[in-house]
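Hey team,

Filing this mostly as a record. A colleague (T.K.) asked me to run one chain through the structure pipeline before their review meeting, and I want the input and output archived in the tracker in case anyone asks later how it was produced. No errors, nothing strange. Just documentation.

Input sequence:
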Amino acid sequence: MAPPIKALIFDVDGTLAETEEVHRLAFNRAFAEAGLPWVWESDFYGELLAVHGGRARLVHFIEHYAPPMAEEGRKQIDELHAAKTRLFAKLVDRRLARPRPGIERLIDDARSQGLAVVLATTSSVENAEALILANFGLDGLEKITAIVGGADAVRPKPAPDVYELALARLGITPRAAIVFEDNGPGLAAATAAGIRTIVTPSRYAGDDDFSSAFAVLSHLGDTFEPYHHIAGVGDEGGTDMVTVAALQRWVSDDDDMLGLLTIGGRPVY
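Output structure:
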């Protein structure tokens, strides 16, 4: 029998909620406060999302696009990023980033069955906490076992650092966890860490490659809002929500199949 799943690891931006548009608004407001004539439109911001981490995104923008007042902006990188974080928290507090279908339900399901719930993001821990507090209240933070943020990882996604750190903090193997992601770089990071990954594509995912995903679903599903199956596991009849029981079943079936491939009697994953 396959070992049970012990932890669910969630990316934050785009996975827990469609936050990237809120980040974009916060960046633009920070630029205006600083007197910088920069405005990131949606399409352009989608291109910038190839760079993970808000501070790194700012540096990339200045160095590669040579915007007006670039030197003034370069001198204010830390101040701009701090202002953006503050403004993001204010916008999130106004409930501008609502959780995607099934997120709160699955977190409650996992905690009720003793699973760890971890947030792993290239963004800051402060941003993740602001999102949880605004949508789930103080009780929401108590449901989160740990948060691994961008400052904790040496390399951002698509490097596997943030997911390897999450596994290390939990003291579990990659096969004992499932990651939930929304885009290609995040999937690449989790896959490189050896963790099965369920992708629920977000607004900015575009044409990302999800071929290595354990499953690709429209979202996690909720009462009266079933998910749409796109690829991978989860296409069994009558399944309309991702639950812990369904995850354990999918993993067990997957391990049974993979276990048929052996070298010296040991499964090859």
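Quick notes for T.K.: The first helix runs from residue 20 to 33. Strands lie at 7-10, 116-120, 146-148, 177-181, 196-199, 215-217, 229-232, 262-263, 266-267.
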